[in-house]
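Quick one, T. Sequence first:
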Amino acid sequence: MTKVITYGTYDLLHYGHIKLLERAKALGDYLIVGVTASDFDRKRGKINVKQSLMERIEAVRATGIADEIIVEEYEGQKIDDIRRLNIDIFTVGSDWESKFDYLNEYCKVIYLPRTAGVSSSEIRAEQRTIRLGMVGNHNILLKFKKECSYINGIQVAALCTTKENLIAKAKSEGIYVTDNYEKMLSLVDAVYIISEPSNHYQHIKEALLQKKHVLCEAPVAINDHDFDEVFRIADENRLVLMEGIKTAYSTAYYRLLLLAQSGEIGNIAAIDATCTSLSDSSSSVRSQNGETWNSICSWGPTAMLPIFQLLGTDYMNCTITSALSTKIENYDVFTKIDFLYPHAVATLKIGTGIKSEGELVVSGSKGYIYVPAPWWKTDYFELRYENQEDNRRHFYQLEGEGIRYEIINFVKSIETKKNSIYLSRKISKGITNIIEKFYNRVGIQEIQITPF
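Structure tokens:
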């Protein structure tokens, strides 16, 4: 019996895929099809796959052509599969000509001509493009615009800002610029919001009432009432309202959660998360951005993310300690929050006026997870144990600091009319609740930090 193997993503399975599979099957008696996992696709630079792994596997199975389906998950797996499965022929499309010649050492390699004029990339490109508007004065808008350019199905069409360098950059790229938010909303299908946190509620509400999908940089709101209202409006109008915490969508972070939740380090006893920066110090925030991003809004949502996703939001007690600016109202130069759970504790340290090691440590009864600084945009973490020989390192490619994956999930949520699985509403609500406690001075202790 001649065994044949081929690999592919098989996103949006089309006639070209089917013809290629039929040609592969004709080469032998038994066809094995390797469907590439999403994480491995990202490592290879294919970041805009529309369908989940299971959807793509089911699409290949439904053709009835494959005798067996496997999942491709890591570099070098092709050699392992050829040896393990006793493969006679490896085949792939001719657009990979010579790429897999090295496999001739293990089996026969055949490149098959592809069906002209049809590809998943072209199909994705032909789908309706979401016209995106952006609002705010933060320089991250430049990164956000750049990351959108890598993704099919979305295009930045308008910008609402008053910041001169953003205006000049947008105009040079042919993007419509205005300081009138209502005008911008009339030109787009969706909006990315990174205005001053106290304005998020109003900007979200106006967009939703105009039937626009919303991706808002965390926090969505600074009190529970506003949070509940905007999500109610989104639900009633069947619109996507997504909170933007880019860390939540990165592969390494998501894998970290899965490993911690699966018991790899035993029962979680403590979490320590630190996020600090000096770039937005209290003396320069207003003059640079015309807006105030305090520590609790700049870093709080990110630092709370692993705590709430691993331990939940039903803590027994929460203590907030802050060093508040004497010049800007509600501006915390530094904040430390301690959470007490029935069987665990958690601490976060955040600051825009102090500097510390930005690492994440998840401590368990069998070992611990260590993520080096800056942990919120990591592509690497370690599982560490008492016996150092058991330690394991995990690497996952990170594109665009996680912003790219965040945008992909936003586009997919709009297309599928389903909320992202990476950040639940309960977690977002828990974050808002802590921020409201800060603003209402509930359970907060104040300290004085002498400036240098």
